[in-house]
Design brief:
Blueprint lengths: L1 H22 L11 H18 L2 E6 L6 E6 L7 E7 L19 E3 L2 E3 L7 H16 L6 E7 L7 H9 L8 E4 L3 E2 L6 E6 L1 E10 L17 H10 L22 H7 L6 H8 L12 H4 L5 E9 L13 E10 L5 H15 L5 E10 L2 E2 L5 H14 L4 E4 L6 H9 L3 E3 L3 E2 L10 E3 H21 L1
Parallel strand pairs: 3-6, 3-7, 7-16, 8-17, 9-15
Antiparallel strand pairs: 1-2, 2-6, 4-5, 5-18, 9-14, 10-12, 10-13, 11-12
Bound molecules: ligand BES and manganese (II) ion (2 copies).
Length: 455
Amino acid sequence: MDFISKYIETNKERMLDELLEVLRIPSVSADPKYKADVEKTAHWMAGKLKAAGADNVEVCPTEGHPIVYGDKLIDPSKPTVLVYGHYDVQPADPLELWNSPPFEPVVKDGKIYARGSCDDKGQVYMHVKAFEAMMANNALPVNVKFIIEGEEEVGSAHLETFIKENTERLSCDVILISDTSIVANDVPSITTGLRGLCYMEIEVTGPNRDLHSGVYGGGVANPLNTICDMISSLIDEKGHITIDGFYDDVLVVSAEERAEMAKTPFDLEEYKKDLGIGEVKGEDGYTTLERVSIRPTLDVNGIWGGYTGEGSKTVLPSKASAKISMRLVPNQSPDKIAKLFEAHIKKIAPPYVSVKVIAHHGGEPVVVPLDFAPMQAAMKAMEQSFGITPIPTREGGSIPIVALFEQVLGAKSILMGFGLNSDAIHSPNEHYGLFNYYKGIETIPWFFKYYAEMN
Ligand code: BES
Ligand code: MN
Ligand code: MN
């Protein structure tokens, strides 16, 4: 497969320029202001897939943002790999914390700085370039289909309908996704699990209108104080979540697997230094790596109410709200957790307020067993390109569509990502290493080769 490395070497500059070009389109799925840019990105991706040699390329409209499809079916007797990724990105705010504008990519110290450089435009584009390299060298060994969506960062709401309506078109033997991380550039790893997500909002109402905090303060409950009390009671001093039944379905990770996990290189001092914190905090009895991967969590993502403008206003607000996410682990179900959460919030709400509980999008957790045969192909591919044996890791983030792919298409996913946890995805100054970009393009064809050889 020397020809793949040679092809990458020869086309290096162009492969980077193209990525920089798509990073300039602000495909922010959450903000309607960017609707036209999201669509433009879909068409851009479709054009590149076609140019790389894909057939049946289509920008499929949905009730939300479009889905890009394309395929290359070389032989019906050969297996089919479905490549999934997303071309949408998170909002770039707060803009003032970026060292260079989020949609004006710059390459500095071997890294591409731009929103979406790692999550996931950079990683999904590695697949388009790896496909191009295989096509150009007559080396595509199996069938391949691409599905690149524009709503991953907002919950993949319309992808579910799309896959249900297109089960034939999307039928495949395995799904390949690069939207996760490796431990370090010299510690390649393959993701064997992702957490699920249950995202809720609560609204606490006290008096029927905002009040003067002097005239009424002390006489009636302040919903902001009350929501804080309620939220702080959701986690106890041991770091356990207090919602009745919350842990009932949690699959206990074996001592063997925990011992295996403990071998993952991890420097706590470095971690604290990187985040600018003096101490870590989490559930008693678990290491930091365990806390962010195999254990469920509850976090406030936003809280508001009352006056937050310039200067001060003395007000006792009528309402207070919070958005709360719970990361879930196998075998917790987001629907069940949403019900438990709602029941618990209603139970702990004091009589002097009323509460409303709203459920947002969620997703099931994922486990990819190491003995799932294509995992071996992924391991071998990474070993080949990095020259180092990859280690299995479980990650804390979520890709809700993975569980749906398995339910609807009956296919499991290989989570072969190339990002680093330090790439600042969703944060200001998101970046992606040139090393990681090219390493991904190099590794993917090896996966195809080893996967084809297994069949
Ligand atoms: N690519 C991430 C998920 C991820 C990041 C997994 C790093 C493993 C390591 C994905 O784009 C993402 O951000 N997912 C959301 C889920 C969602 C429903 C918006 C998440 O995890 O918050
Ligand atoms: Mn992503
Ligand atoms: Mn993301």
